[in-house]
């Protein structure tokens, strides 16, 4: 048995998904097939690659080593395919991108649609996480391009500005808040507050603006997405700081409203494209990045939202 490229692809999918079933869905095959491939690979190498725990799998030290080399091999394979197709005046393949919530939910779908209309043979795989995790994925070469909602400097990471977003204090449009137009920062700190998770660009931008940590507020819950926070606000759980992009529909329908904070000027934050300085972008990634940066008109659009 040889260490075939297909087995490397299966192994890396299991490693990245942290699950045999999720890897099977990603590769469009059955879970027993995935499990069989991993067992064969472990038998061939002569060492366990994953420890099977009751609810999850964890890569062993050998698995970590194989992944580091295996991901490099797969990246080189994809780059070779894309360079050859470009040479033949074709653009096809897969582009992996990661994004934080606001760019991923409200900006990138439109850009991806525009890109797809120009190069329909390209498949884009986008995953949404917080800004810190997105940077880690780019540095680990699991994503060619990342989109984040805060400036996070890290060795090996290059950031390029592509849009500007506005944050606001968002409250339910109920009896308690209907007549309120502004609050002081000290009043805000006492109100039940719904926070985004650590690593969120929205959270980092607000903390930097007011010079306080989220823990200084009356946090009653931490949520992993703007959508979850919105639902909490509509249920009357509390108030929060959110992107105006995330709540424009709810504000127009009257279920939520924004309130000014005394002494705090409008909260603006830059959105960035993150790329790995140590890796050469594939032709597909370069083309998509060009489209994004050519769409800088997004900045003026966001300012009017």
Number of helices: 12
| Uncertain spans | 298-305
Number of strands: 12
How much of the polypeptide forms β-strand, as a percent range? 15-25%
How many distinct domains? 2
CATH class bucket of the largest domain: Alpha Beta
Q: In the CATH classification, which architecture of the largest domain applies?
A: 3-Layer(aba) Sandwich
Which fold name corresponds to the CATH topology of the largest domain? Answer: D-Maltodextrin-Binding Protein, domain 2
Label the overall shape: globular
**Oligomeric state of shown chains:** single chain
Mean pLDDT across the residues is: 89
Q: What is the rounded distance between the termini?
A: 59 Å
Helix/strand-derived category reads: alpha/beta
Major sheet description: 8 strands, mixed
Helix content: 40-55%
Reading the helices and strands in chain order gives HHHEEHEHEHEEEHEHEHEHEEHH
Radius of gyration: 22 Å
């Amino acid at each position: 048995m040889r260490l075939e490229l297909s087995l490397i692809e299966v192994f890396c999918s299991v490693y990245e998904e942290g699950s045999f079933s999720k890897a099977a869905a990603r590769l469009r095959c059955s879970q027993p097939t995935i499990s069989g491939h991993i067992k064969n690979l472990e038998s061939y190498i002569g060492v366990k690659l994953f420890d099977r725990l009751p609810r999850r799998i964890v890569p062993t030290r050998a698995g970590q080593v194989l992944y580091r080399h295996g991901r490099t091999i797969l990246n080189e394979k994809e780059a070779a395919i894309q360079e050859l197709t470009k040479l033949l005046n074709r653009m096809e393949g897969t582009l992996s991108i990661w994004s934080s919530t606001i760019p991923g939910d409200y900006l990138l779908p439109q850009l991806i649609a525009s890109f797809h209309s120009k190069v329909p043979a390209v498949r884009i795989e986008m995953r949404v996480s917080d800004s810190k995790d997105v940077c880690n994925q780019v540095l680990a070469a699991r994503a060619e391009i990342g989109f984040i909602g805060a400036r996070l400097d890290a060795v090996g990471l290059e950031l390029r500005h592509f849009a500007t977003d506005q944050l606001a204090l968002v409250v339910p449009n109920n009896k308690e808040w209907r007549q309120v137009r502004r609050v002081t920062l000290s009043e805000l700190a006492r109100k039940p507050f719904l926070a985004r998770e650590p690593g969120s660009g929205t959270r980092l931008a607000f903390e930097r603006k007011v010079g306080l940590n989220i823990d200084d507020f009356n946090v009653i819950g931490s949520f992993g997405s703007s959508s979850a926070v919105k639902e909490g606000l509509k249920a009357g759980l509390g108030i929060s700081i959110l992107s105006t992009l995330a709540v424009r529909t709810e504000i127009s329908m009257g279920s939520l409203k924004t309130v000014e904070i005394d002494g705090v000027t409008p909260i603006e934050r830059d959105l960035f494209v993150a790329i790995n300085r140590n890796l050469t972008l594939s032709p597909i990634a370069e083309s998509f990045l060009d489209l994004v940066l050519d769409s800088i008109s997004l900045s003026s659009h966001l300012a009017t939202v």
